[in-house]
TrEMBL record:
<comment type="similarity">
    <text>Belongs to the germin family.</text>
</comment>
<feature type="binding site">
    <location>
        <position position="63"/>
    </location>
    <ligand>
        <name>oxalate</name>
    </ligand>
</feature>
<feature type="binding site">
    <location>
        <position position="61"/>
    </location>
    <ligand>
        <name>Mn(2+)</name>
    </ligand>
</feature>
<dbReference type="GO" id="GO:0030145">
    <property type="term" value="F:manganese ion binding"/>
</dbReference>
<keyword id="KW-0964">Secreted</keyword>
<feature type="binding site">
    <location>
        <position position="68"/>
    </location>
    <ligand>
        <name>oxalate</name>
    </ligand>
</feature>
<dbReference type="InterPro" id="IPR019780">
    <property type="entry name" value="Germin_Mn-BS"/>
</dbReference>
<feature type="binding site">
    <location>
        <position position="68"/>
    </location>
    <ligand>
        <name>Mn(2+)</name>
    </ligand>
</feature>
<feature type="domain" description="Cupin type-1">
    <location>
        <begin position="27"/>
        <end position="167"/>
    </location>
</feature>
<feature type="binding site">
    <location>
        <position position="112"/>
    </location>
    <ligand>
        <name>Mn(2+)</name>
    </ligand>
</feature>
<keyword id="KW-0732">Signal</keyword>
<dbReference type="InterPro" id="IPR001929">
    <property type="entry name" value="Germin"/>
</dbReference>
<protein>
    <recommendedName>
        <fullName>Cupin type-1 domain-containing protein</fullName>
    </recommendedName>
</protein>
<dbReference type="GO" id="GO:0048046">
    <property type="term" value="C:apoplast"/>
</dbReference>
<dbReference type="Pfam" id="PF00190">
    <property type="entry name" value="Cupin_1"/>
</dbReference>
<dbReference type="InterPro" id="IPR006045">
    <property type="entry name" value="Cupin_1"/>
</dbReference>
<keyword id="KW-0052">Apoplast</keyword>
Length: 179
């Protein structure tokens, strides 16, 4: 009874470039989901604009509740996802270089990334996701930036490196590029 047109609208300005200068990874993800448009509730869709600085990336991450379809609007992106196949102990990388107008699909729950290989020209993409609340888990942030920290003994063994390397990684500032 209290629903109106504003529940299905947002002046999101997705046509405007976003700042990538402040991001350590050189990208800015502008997600429009049910938190910004209440009318998306139960509809199973959301959208994001991703801006990439030259040599910027949207680092390896996963969406636990959504498949993503990405379209390059400007520039070039190297993209990929890794399968998880415990039976064959094979984590296969599926990757492509995408140009303006190209489309790539990242299946739900799989670790994926996008990287702008051009050192001079930014890139822009639009992603559609199959959930009104897809979630995003950036792998490095989750593993090395958890609070409280995962034991360096656990991570050193898992990554088969010295504990000093883990300590250094955990000391880095792990930022979120999703705004």
């Amino acid at each position: 009874m209290d629903v109106n047109a504003d529940d299905f609208f947002k002046a999101a300005m997705l046509d405007k470039p976003r700042d990538t200068e402040k991001s350590k990874v050189g990208s800015n993800v502008t997600l429009i989901n049910v938190m910004q448009i209440p009318g998306l509730n139960t509809l199973g869709i959301s959208i994001a604009r991703i801006d990439y600085a030259p040599l910027g990336e949207n680092p390896p991450h996963t969406h636990p509740r959504a498949t993503e379809i990405l379209t390059v609007l400007e520039g070039t992106l190297y993209v990929g996802f890794v399968t998880s196949n415990q039976a064959n102990r094979e984590n296969k990388l599926f990757s492509k270089v995408l140009n303006k107008g190209d489309v790539f699909v990242f299946p739900q729950g799989l670790i994926h990334f996008q990287f702008n290989p051009n050192p001079h020209v930014p890139a822009v993409a639009i992603a559609a996701l199959s959930s009104q609340n897809p979630g995003a888990i950036t792998i490095a942030n989750a593993v090395f930036g958890s609070k409280p920290a995962i034991s360096d003994d656990v991570l050193a063994k898992a990554f088969q490196v010295e504990k000093g390397t883990i300590d250094w990684l955990q000391a880095q500032f792990w930022e979120n590029n999703h705004y």
